[in-house]
Amino acid sequence: MPSAPSRLNCYSASPSECFDVSTELLLTIATARLKLLHALTASADPFSNLSSSNAESMEHDRIGHFFLRIVLAHDDSSRDWVVKAETKLFELRLKAEDPKVRNEFLNVISTSTTKQPNRSANNLPATPSTQSRLSILRVPFERVPELVANRKVLVSGGDALIPAELSWYVVVSCFRDRLAAAMDACAVDHPRLMRLEGDRLEPLINSLLSLHNRLIMGSWRGFSAARTFWRGGHIAASDVDSLAKANRFPPCMTMLHIGLRKDGHLRHQARLQYGLFLKDAGMPVDEAILFWRKAFERVHDDKSFEKKRYTYNIRHQYGLEGHRKSMQSYSCSKIVSECAPSASNHGGCPFVHADRSQLRTLLMTRMGMSNSQKGILAMQEIEDLVGRRKFESACGCAFAALHQSTELGDDNGVAVHTRKRRKRLDSDNATIRHPNGWFQMSREDINETQEITPTPAVDDGNMSDELL
Question: pTM for this structure?
Answer without folding.
Answer: 0.53
